[in-house]
Write a structure and sequence with these properties.
The complex is a heterodimer of chains A (349) and B (294). Chain A is built from 15 helices and 9 strands. With 349 residues, chain A is of the alpha/beta class. In chain A, the strands form 2 sheets. In chain A, strands 4, 5, 6, 7, 8 and 9 form a 6-stranded mixed beta sheet that branches. Chain A starts with a helix and ends with a helix. Chain B is mainly alpha-helical and 294 residues long. Classes of the chains: A alpha/beta (349), B mainly alpha (294). Chains A and B meet through helix 1, helix 3, strand 6 and helix 15 of A and helix 2, helix 4 and helix 12 of B.
């Protein structure tokens, strides 16, 4: 009986451990590039075009937030060759030494980028990231149901909503805090605890005024459940393509601007192929479908010139210089983040 | 002390009676549940660095933070939510179990299958189904408006009521099945004897049926109560994420804040509460067992 038990135990453990190694090794093929990206981001045809040209197979995995991506990498998910973190997450990842260096000599298509995007505050000189697409965070309004104020749209229409039972704010503490701080004429990246506490008081009232917190307001806008939404520009423009009464606004106090980037994790076993992939998608012809389908803005001057008129001259996608001057990047704010999280929990408790 | 000794004796006997084939499952449990659990417990005594790394510096700070008023409020709110939802499950689920247990033949099989058919669909899809059912423009409100039962849509989605509906809907089968199998095992002659001895239907139900199935009811309640404590998808999608429950707060510590040590402390605390509930159940079972023997 004793030996039987022992054999059972050993066989059991062997199956479990062996299984892990088996499935682990199965996913590591030669000539396969593993990319962790946003869902519905890369069109299938673009990926096929890349494989046809280079012979490199691509396996996509998806992440729904920067934080989830970070957690996956921190938890030891190795084998990703390309990740697509946003600006503030790039800085955090780089602080922890998680990113490999970018070799510009392997990416000749960098020439297409506008100079401005080669010197963004979170990675001047593109040492470990390449900006690929960008967008903004603002407000979408169903103009059939809600009257647009004459003085223009400000954050008050969201935070002190005239249609409280049909308003949503993003379920993202950084975005909600920065919206409220902009509304209160403060710096959205402030580390001043007193100012943050004042913002928290406001958000507690906002919570009572709005219908819900959600990071996916698009379907709710379309089915009429909400009429005013705190939203990413891409979602808003996709919604207005389906219902032209839905319009996207960047509040007059300014909004948040973000970039999606290419970065290569230090743990990537295929840095060479990863560079090839980045170079491929910096070629305007290869990225035009992706950028148009998602209504994203491109940092590439060559690509922008190739876009259809409706995209290129759309101020919802490319705000005017004057509006852009009021936009902010979310910065990495260190330990202040923990403080904001505590306030956020207080708001919701 | 003798209680502990009893325990270790019974554990040894238990180990001896486990068949060899079960050791596969045991090793799976050890590798996939027990070891990760101890990693979580260990991590709860460590420290987060500024950028979200973990520093090996032994301290109790995470527990001090967890005992902050904010988090205690969240904990109490979560316990209350789970308690109400469990009680509601019991109210809704008991008649279902009772009905099924009384059925014979194909109806019984059918009923059990119907109970679990929703689980063939993905959990998130089912919750989104409820969203489209309860919304202001959803099926329920459309029907109420159509038959002029109400003049304006009833706000259910994105309220506490919506959360309760989602919780009851999703967890009900886990309560029905243990109660059903307890009722099933109940010897029908007991009920007949009770009738023969002059007890009415109501008296028989409370004095004969309930005492014999209370363990099943308790197990069923635990089956729904415990996972509800960690539930965060339902309050988010049906409650509009306006309230923080423990599950969400913990997930946020792991995935948004990169504060694994604090999240681990919360998870450990929750596990202790759950363990406590199980010990309580065990004690109670033992006591009632002795009462029966006497």
């Amino acid at each position: 009986m004793g030996t039987q038990r022992l054999i059972g135990l050993i066989v059991g453990l062997a199956v479990v451990v062996g299984g892990i190694f088996y499935f682990n090794s199965k996913t590591k093929h030669e000539n396969v590039l593993h990319i962790c990206t946003w869902s519905n981001y890369f069109p299938e045809t673009s990926i096929q075009a890349f494989t046809a040209k280079t012979g490199i197979r691509v396996e996509l995995s998806y992440t729904s937030s920067n934080e989830e991506l970070f957690s996956k990498l921190k938890a030891g998910a190795t084998g990703f060759d390309i990740i697509q973190p946003s600006d503030y997450m790039l800085r955090q990842m780089n602080q922890l030494g998680m990113l490999g260096a970018i070799d510009p000599s392997k990416i000749p298509n960098l020439v297409h980028l506008e100079e401005f995007y080669k010197n963004l505050p979170y990675d001047p000189g593109l040492k470990y990231s390449i900006p690929f697409t960008w967008g903004t965070t603002g407000i979408a309004i169903n103009t059939e149901k809600v009257k647009i104020p004459e003085g223009g749209v400000g954050w008050d229409i969201l935070l002190n909503s005239p249609d409280t039972k049909h308003t949503s704010v993003l379920d993202d503490m950084r975005e909600v805090f920065s919206a409220t701080l902009l509304y209160q004429k403060q710096n959205p990246n402030t580390r001043d605890l007193a100012i943050l506490k004042a913002a928290k008081e406001e958000i507690s009232k906002v919570k009572e005024r709005v219908l819900l917190f959600t990071s996916e307001p698009k379907p709710l806008l379309l089915n009429g459940e909400i009429n005013i939404a705190h939203i990413y520009s891409t979602d808003a423009i996709q919604a207005s393509a389906q219902n032209p009464k839905i319009k996207y606004f960047i509040p007059k106090e300014g909004g948040i601007v973000w970039t999606d980037n290419f970065a290569i994790p230090k743990s990537s076993p295929n840095s060479e192929m990863a560079h090839a992939f980045i170079n491929f998608f910096l070629d305007p012809d290869n990225a035009v479908e992706l950028v148009t389908a998602n209504h994203l803005a491109t940092p590439s001057k060559t690509l922008k010139a190739k876009l259809p008129e409706s995209e290129r001259n759309n101020p919802e996608i490319y705000p005017s210089r004057e509006v852009m001057s009021k936009m902010h990047f979310l910065e990495e704010i260190g330990e202040t983040l923990l403080f904001i999280n505590k306030l956020w929990t207080e708001i919701k408790s | 002390m003798s209680y502990l000794k009893d325990k270790s004796d019974s554990l040894q006997t238990a180990a001896k009676t486990i068949p060899a084939s079960a050791w596969f499952f045991m090793s799976w449990l050890v590798l996939m549940t027990l070891i990760p659990f101890f990693i979580i417990v260990g991590m709860s005594f460590l420290e987060r660095t500024e950028f979200g790394n973990i520093r090996f510096h032994f301290n109790f700070d995470n527990y001090l933070v967890t005992f902050n008023v904010v988090y205690l409020k969240v904990l109490l709110k979560t316990l209350w939510l789970a308690l109400i939802a469990t009680a509601s499950c019991l109210v809704v689920g008991f008649p279902v179990a009772y009905y099924l247990a009384k059925q014979a033949g194909p109806m019984k099989q059918m009923g059990l299958i119907l109970l679990f058919i929703p689980f063939w669909t993905n959990f998130i899809l089912r919750i989104y189904g409820i969203v489209s059912l309860l919304g202001n423009n959803g099926l329920l409100n459309q029907m109420l408006l159509h038959y002029q039962i109400v003049d304006s849509p009833v706000r259910i989605l994105y309220t506490r009521v919506g959360v309760y509906i989602g919780l009851i809907y999703n967890y009900l089968p886990f309560l029905v099945v243990p109660v059903y199998s307890a009722l099933e095992k109940l010897d029908p002659t007991l009920r007949e004897a009770s009738f023969d001895l002059g007890a009415g239907r109501i008296q028989t139900f409370f004095k004969v049926v309930i005492p014999n199935i209370k363990e099943g009811v308790f197990v069923g309640s635990l089956f729904v109560f415990i996972p509800m404590l960690g539930e965060y998808v339902i309050p988010d999608l049906l409650g509009g994420a306006k309230e923080a429950f423990l599950g969400k707060v913990m997930v946020d510590q792991f995935f948004t804040m990169q504060n694994w040590p604090l999240g681990s402390a919360m998870a450990t605390l929750l596990s202790v509460i759950m363990l406590f509930a199980l010990i309580l159940q065990n004690r109670w079972k033992k006591n009632s067992g002795e009462a029966h023997a006497a």
